[in-house]
Every structure is written in structure tokens, then in C-alpha cells.
Amino acid sequence: EPEVTQTPSHQVTQMGQEVILRCVPISNHLYFYWYRQILGQKVEFLVSFYNNEISEKSEIFDDQFSVERPDGSNFTLKIRSTKLEDSAMYFCASSVESLGPKNIQYFGAGTRLSVL
Amino acid sequence: QKEVEQDPGPLSVPEGAIVSLNCTYSNSAFQYFMWYRQYSRKGPELLMYTYSSGNKEDGRFTAQVDKSSKYISLFIRDSQPSDSATYLCAMRRNTDKLIFGTGTRLQVFP
């Protein structure tokens, strides 16, 4: 069964450093998402992406965050200057469609980001 | 008022029990409803998806949506220890972002 793959599974970084989290969405999916889950809290939407453009972003997704599809298979989330409060699980998801009933989002296993 | 409310539990039941998990929501614009299962430190795994009021069954799982009451439920029949996980409700307006509940932690003991 096709799945969303995320690397690394755990990333440790120093405050102020840049990190790039990587995702390989399901191959025939066209819509990509990043969500975040701080320990003990709910999963929160960060950003959606289609056709090399951001479709929607939350207020969490400020200028420190950026997303990119650098090639035909990868989808990345970059945090330019990490803060302690960026420590969380970051989940990538993908779907065949965006709106309507066919937007069924499948999630990767996540990257645990620890900012020290 | 939160957009999506979910009792965090924990809910502890014996093997074989019927489990009922619930979420309420405040925005009648939500049209699509999902239940995800999340094991510790893993990603959400889609269990059930529905976009109309009524019941949808898949094996031991039944999802129920009552749009008039803004209430959704997930029933698990013949619960197993392997069902022990956190169950997340999620819903979506006619946009692409999912709004999640806080999750209910379920423990099924043998």
C-alpha cells in the first residue's frame, strides 16, 4: 500500500539553526500538507501546497517557515531560525484532490523536531 | 467555544467491549468528517471517512454523523488490545485543511 514517507524520524537542532524536514508524498497525489503536533496537544494545520504554490496557511506559518517541492517526488518544510517552541512532531500529508469529497489526507509517520 | 471538542479520556475498557468515541463541533459549515487512529509517536492513520449524516460501517468500526446536533461518533465493536491508541476526530469545511479534536486515549485491557 502506498504511503507518505518522512525523513528524518527525529531531528535535534540548536535554537537559531535552520532545519529542513523532508517528505515523499504518495506518488499520484497532487496536494500536500504540513501539520504540527506539540506534545500533548492536538494536531494543527500549518500549510497546504499545490502546483508549486501555497494554497492556504495558518497563523502559525509565519516568515520563519517555507515549503518547497524541489523535484518531482520530495516536499520539504524549512524552518529558518528555530525556536524552542518549534519543538513538536511535524506530519506531512497528501491527497489526490483538494476540495470536495476526494480530499482524503494520508499522513506520514512524522518527524520529531527537538530544539535545544 | 472551540471549533471541535473531544473528551481526552483516558477511556479504559475490557477486551470485547463496545467503545463509543465522540466529538462535537460548533461550525455548521463542516461537511467532511474523519476518524484517525494514532499510536504513540506515530502519524495519524485514517480509519473512517464520511460526508453525510447517518452511519457508515467498516468491519468492527461504525462512524455516525448527526449534522443537526453537530455530533459525530465512532463505535468499535469487539474491542481488542491492539485497538489501544489515541483516536482523533477531524473535520473539514469545503477547504483543504483539517481541524482536529484533541484526541481520546483508549486502553483495551485483556
- Most extensive interface, residues per chain? A-B, 30 and 24 residues
Radius of gyration of chain A, in Å, reads: 13 Å
Distance, first to last CA of chain A: 36 Å
Q: Structural class of the secondary structure composition of chain B?
A: mainly beta
Order of helices and strands of chain B: EEEEEEEEEEE
Q: Count of helices of chain A?
A: 0
* E-strand count of chain B: 11
Morphology of chain B: globular
Q: Rg of chain B from C-alpha positions?
A: 13 Å
Low-pLDDT stretches of chain B: none
Q: What is the averaged pLDDT score of chain A? A: 93
Q: Please, what is the average pLDDT of chain B?
A: 93
Separation, N- and C-terminal Cα atoms of chain B: 38 Å
Biggest sheet of chain B, open or closed, and with what strands and sense?
Answer: 6 strands, mixed
Structural category of chain A is: mainly beta
Question: Care to give the gist of this entry?
Answer:
Helices cover 0% and strands 49% of the residues of chain A. By secondary structure, chain A is mainly β.
Blueprint (SSEs and pairs):
The complex is a heterodimer of chains A (116) and B (110).
Chain A: E1 5-7, E2 10-13, E3 19-24, E4 31-37, E5 43-50, E6 53-57, E7 65-68, E8 75-79, E9 88-95, E10 106-107, E11 111-115
Parallel strand pairs in A: 2-11
Antiparallel strand pairs in A: 1-3, 3-8, 4-5, 4-9, 5-6, 7-8, 9-10, 9-11
Chain B: E1 4-6, E2 11-14, E3 19-25, E4 32-38, E5 45-50, E6 54-58, E7 61-66, E8 71-76, E9 85-92, E10 99-100, E11 104-109
Please tell me about this protein's structure.
The complex is a heterodimer of chains A (116) and B (110). By secondary structure, chain A is mainly beta. Chain A has no helices and 11 strands. Chain A has strands at residues 5-7, 10-13, 19-24, 31-37, 43-50, 53-57, 65-68, 75-79, 88-95, 106-107, 111-115. Chain B is built from no helices and 11 strands. Chain B has strands at residues 4-6, 11-14, 19-25, 32-38, 45-50, 54-58, 61-66, 71-76, 85-92, 99-100, 104-109. In chain B, strand 6 and strand 7 (61-66) form a beta hairpin. The model of chain B has no long low-confidence stretch (mean pLDDT 93). At the A-B interface, strand 4, strand 5, strand 9 and strand 10 of A face strand 4, strand 5, strand 9 and strand 10 of B.
